[in-house]
Amino acid sequence: MTIAKVSLDCKNIRDWESFHSEFAQVFGFPAFYGRNMDAWIDCMTSLDAPDDGMSNVHCEPGKVLTLELANVASFAVRCPAQYKALIECAAFVNWRRLEVGSPSVLALSFWYTRES
C-alpha cells in the first residue's frame, strides 16, 4: 500500500516488547523482523522500496512518509529510552539514506504537550 502518512498511538507502548509489537503491526514488518532498533532502522529505511519486503506500508520513491504520533508526552515520560531511540533512529534512517545519495524517507510529526 502506498501512502503518505501513518498514524501510531504511543499509548500502547509500555516497554521494548510493546514498542516493537506496535511498529511491526502498524507497518506490517516481516516475520523475520529482529525486534531491535537495528532491525527497525532496516525496515524504515526501505519505506520507498516495496520489493525489499521490509514492510507493508510504502511511500512513493522520492517522497517522504510522515509518521504521525499520538500521546507522545506521556510516552516520553513512561518510556524515555524508547522515546529517545525513536527520535534518534528516525533521524539515522534519513542520514543513512543521504549518505548513499538517496533522499530522506521518514518524517515524524507530533505535538508534545504536558497535557497529552
Automatic annotation (TrEMBL):
Residues 5-93 form the Barstar (barnase inhibitor) domain. Pfam families: Barstar. Signal peptide: none annotated. It comes from the Bacteria. InterPro entries: Barstar (IPR000468), Barstar-like_sf (IPR035905). Belongs to the barstar family. This is Barstar family protein.
